Amino acid sequence: MLKIQYNIALLALLAVSSCKTTAPPQQIVVTETPALLEIGNEKFSVEDYQDSYNKNKNASDSTRELTPEEYFNLYKDLKIKILHAKDEGKDTTQDYKEEITSYREQLAKNHLVDKSLVEKLSNEAYNRLKQEVRASHILIGVSEDASPADTLEAYRAAIALRGRLEEGSDFGDLAAKFSKDPVAARTRGDLGYFTAFQTLYPIETVAYTLPVGKVSQPVRTKAGYHLVKVMDRRSNRGMVRIAHIMVQQDTAGTAAQKESAKARIDEAYALLESGEDWDAVVESFSDDRQSRKNRGLLPMFGIGQMVPEIEEAAFALTKVNGYSKPVLTMYGWHIVRLAEKRSLEPYSVMAPSLRKKVVTDSRGKVLELANAKRLREKYKVQENADQWNAVAALADSTIKAGNWDYMRAVSTDWASVALFKIEEQSYDALGFLNYVKRKQQARTKDASPAIVFRKYYQDYLTESLADYEKEHLEETNAEFRSIMSEIKEGVLLSQVMEENVWGRSLTDSTGQKAFYDRNKERYNFPERALATVVSAKDTQTVNAIKRTLAQSPYKLERRLKEILFGANATEVENEQLDALTDVYIVMEKNPDYIVEIAGYRSADESEITSANRIRNVVKYLNGRNIPILRIIEKDYGSFRQAAEADRNRRVSFQFYSQARSDVEKVYNADKPDAVMIRDGYFTKENPLFTKFKWQTGEQTVTDNNMVFWTSVQKIEPSRAKTFAEARGSVINDYQKELEKQLINRLQEKFPVKVNAQELEKIKR
């Protein structure tokens, strides 16, 4: 409907505003040159029209470009509606102001980011992602808030250690002895292989710029000074997805427990080697409950995202579905199977996610510092040193604990003390002191109160500059000013259309029916076939689908793990809840599903045992809001005895569905778009039906290595649509009539004059 088009256009304007260049703003202007258009007392120039045309000349319902003359009528109608909205005071209401403020907040974010620097950092990160670096480090700890003396002492200690390394001391020995990294004693400073975004940006930067074998100068981070040594560098190995079988082993377990775990994983490996199906071995042996539900599959991962042993085993596999020998990790024993391998994607694909990461990653500090510098250069800032000295005296040791309060010791009227000015706007000390109270948090023991307080001041000044820029964006940014003008007009237009067209067209059933009666000749069905169309890669699959569709509800080729009970047991226990939860999740996600719950018993169990098992499973599902109407109960008792005695005491699950789309989903679960099922009415021109003869009955054809089958129930001749059948089209057409009526009324209220000479200019 038209309403949707207006709203989508407004949202799209926000979405693309960060990356498009916008022409100067649309404004209602009075110029000395002849006006193109006069509406009431307002005049609109050729330039204003041209700006609007350049932005909106593509037709909303096609890719066709509107001619200047075609767009002129839309432009004229737009302006008269907006004038009407303003005349009624719609731009002064609280709701309007709140909506514009919300849009402004979203839009301003895109204009307060240094996009060129974000792009530079994104490109840098992508180039680094092409390589993996192995490095070691030694950390000399010192807080970022430490006093200058403590900071200097730590720096000198780092320089001294670097001197020993230059003289030939072993890096690992010194890391184990002196590094403040908590795991250094175990790792000897080894950070392993990593790539972009996997360590602090300053460490990452030096690791990617330093030659292999060299030791860096001290590198500062929040934690202190680091000495970094690059051990190796290699090409990025990409991303892998694996499935695994895991047998848990407690590192603190007994020797017997460890032997048992090793025996189980060896048994699983032997079964795989003998040709046993992977899924069956996962089901029987894996202790990883989460991945076991999905044939052992784990999410895609890259370097540094998985325990090293699994990582090495995964990247060593070269053939999809190939699997490793048992691998021991801190979690237990694993067999790793390769499911998928991907190389690094092109920058054009990765760019959006990289831009998000560089803003939130530790390199975001680079953006913050660059933005602070830009704001300082853009706006005139006058800082009052004397007033700062008076305020700085309030800092004491309580600020290290995060419970500082300026009201404890002083009674000065800080609201009257001007701390600094941005342009001509003054910022008082009270605002800063309240900012500190609001932002403060506990600091490290070696933090200096004076340093902490000064940092709060610098942050407050930077935030004040950012707020000042946001408040004055319309004055300094022509692109932002233009987009905000469009948004304001769009919101007013939406309100006018909702009140006079959209809302009425949807709720005025009498008006809809009257419009239909006046225009019945518009609404007709062509000749149509009521049919089902199926396509698949082969005839066997098509025939299987035909059998499934022959009886409703449709039996789905989808089962879940059955649950087993002990002898004479009927209650659902904790060990069976995982399987039942899976059933619930499937039913919850698929509202058209029906589940058949089949109960069994051993011959030596009482006759009601299987019925009680079914009853308790149904009770569980009912308790989780799966209605009884979506459950079929089948009590097979001691019939259909299984070869394995334990399985005679089971409850199994078979899914059905009322929707043919669910049949399609099941067939496409492993190979998307392998199967298509469509039913309903088809015209002769429908691309799916051009392959078949226009007649009732079943037909099968092969085209482009696909098998197509149809069953045509009947062919209906063309006929007029009833009001109910035509209602959707009627509402759209009724909206157009209401809009036309609105324009006619507004033209009486605001007389429209078109300058023919100026109009000729735009036609050229």
From TrEMBL:
It is an enzyme of class 5 (isomerase). It comes from the Bacteria. The keyword Chaperone does not apply. Its EC number is 5.2.1.8. Pfam families: Rotamase (PF00639). Residues 1-23 form the signal peptide. Keywords: Isomerase, Rotamase, Signal. Residues 130-232, 237-340 form the PpiC domain. GO terms for molecular function: peptidyl-prolyl cis-trans isomerase activity. PANTHER family: PEPTIDYL-PROLYL CIS-TRANS ISOMERASE HP_0175-RELATED, PEPTIDYLPROLYL ISOMERASE. This is Peptidylprolyl isomerase. The lineage of its organism: Bacteria, Pseudomonadati, Bacteroidota, Cytophagia, Cytophagales.
